[in-house]
From TrEMBL:
Coiled-coil region list: none
Pfam families the record matches: adh_short_C2
Name listed for the protein in its UniProt record: Dehydrogenases with different specificities (Related to short-chain alcohol dehydrogenases)-like protein
PANTHER family membership: DEHYDROGENASE/REDUCTASE SDR FAMILY MEMBER 1, DEHYDROGENASE_REDUCTASE SDR FAMILY MEMBER 1
Native source organism of the sequence: Ramlibacter tataouinensis (strain ATCC BAA-407 / DSM 14655 / LMG 21543 / TTB310)
InterPro entries (UniProt xref): NAD(P)-bd_dom_sf, SDR_fam
Length: 319
């Protein structure tokens, strides 16, 4: 059978074909959703993190107990396979983003393989490693371990990856750096000063990098999802992705791929440099770019109550 020239084909449109991306912290949660959606758009995605099929970090033991899990769900290998199955090319690279030499080796590999980098998604986050089951408490009652977990293994990881990406992108005179964050128009994330400070620092870091990278044609943004149905959220509510609708308390949740579609839309936007330095909400981007969540919904923006309290913990985008 010969197709007529004007007959449609079933080949899906791949707006990010040829794009080379790194997604940090992509074993599960937000990183996994972003990586898969970039793959669906045709990108080559370097999927990084510490969890592989054969090895998992011991620093999650406390969170596993709180979530009622025996083992960590997800790995960079599984995410990379999903990226490829979605239509892109997934490449799993074990990387501890707190270790300068490992991060440097990652960027050297990407440059060696492709001579360029188009997109860096800063998503690596160690904030959950110190979580003790208490979110809503005065700052003097929270352990100082939160500082190391959220600032050193969170904010610093973003800065470190950005330092390696910036020279490569500046030489190209193009590129995009996206930080995953949480933001609700400057409202205070009451109940956890450490958490609020880390999110504010990530937003300011994205802004500062934007100011210095703009003259080189490189954009830097922060993107804020709502309350996502990550593996840990689903486990904490004793359900899974197939049955979450049976839990009324999860009605306002969104899948991690909703965030992924936002990042893919930004990466495909030729005018993205005009938005550099901004903090953008996924729900607003969904309306602007015309995408939906995987179930067809346009999920409204997550907004904190006047007394935010523990609601902020629900909104953590990464895990």
């Amino acid at each position: 059978m010969t197709l007529e020239p004007d007959m449609p084909t079933t080949t899906p449109r791949r707006p990010l074909s040829g794009l080379v991306a790194i997604v940090t912290g992509a074993s599960r949660g937000a990183g996994r959703g972003i990586a898969v959606e970039l793959g669906a758009a045709g990108a080559t995605v370097y999927v990084t993190g510490r969890t592989t099929r054969n090895r998992a970090p011991a620093t999650y033991d406390g969170l596993l107990r709180l979530s009622g899990l025996d083992t960590l769900l997800g790995s960079i290998d599984e995410t990379a396979s999903e990226v490829t199955a979605a239509g892109g090319r997934g490449i799993a690279v074990p990387c501890d983003h707190t270790r300068d030499e490992e991060v440097g080796a990652l960027f050297e590999r990407v440059e060696r393989d492709h001579s360029r980098l188009d997109l860096l998604v800063n998503n690596a986050w160690g904030g959950h490693e110190s979580f003790d089951g208490v979110f809503d408490a005065p700052f003097w009652q929270h352990p100082l371990a939160h500082w190391d977990a959220m600032m050193d293994r969170g904010v610093r990881s973003h800065l470190l990856a950005g330092r390696f990406a910036a020279p490569l992108m500046a030489r190209q005179r193009r590129g995009l750096i996206v930080a995953t964050t949480f933001w609700d128009r400057g409202r205070y994330l009451r109940g956890n000063l450490f958490y609020d400070l880390a999110k504010a620092a990530i937003n300011r870091l994205a802004f500062g990098m934007a100011e210095e990278l703009r003259p080189h044609g490189v954009a830097s943004l922060a993107v804020s999802p709502g309350w996502m149905r990550t593996e840990f959220v689903l486990a904490g509510h004793r359900t899974d992705e197939a049955h979450w609708r049976e839990r009324p308390e999860l009605a306002r949740t969104e899948s991690p791929r909703y965030l992924g579609r936002a990042v893919a839309a930004l990466a495909a936007d030729p005018q993205v440099l005009a938005r550099t330095g901004q903090v953008l909400r996924v729900a607003d981007l969904a309306v602007e770019y015309g995408f939906t969540d995987i179930d067809g919904r346009t999920v409204p923006a997550f907004e904190l109550a006047a007394d935010a309290g523990a609601a902020a913990d629900e909104a953590d985008p990464r895990e």
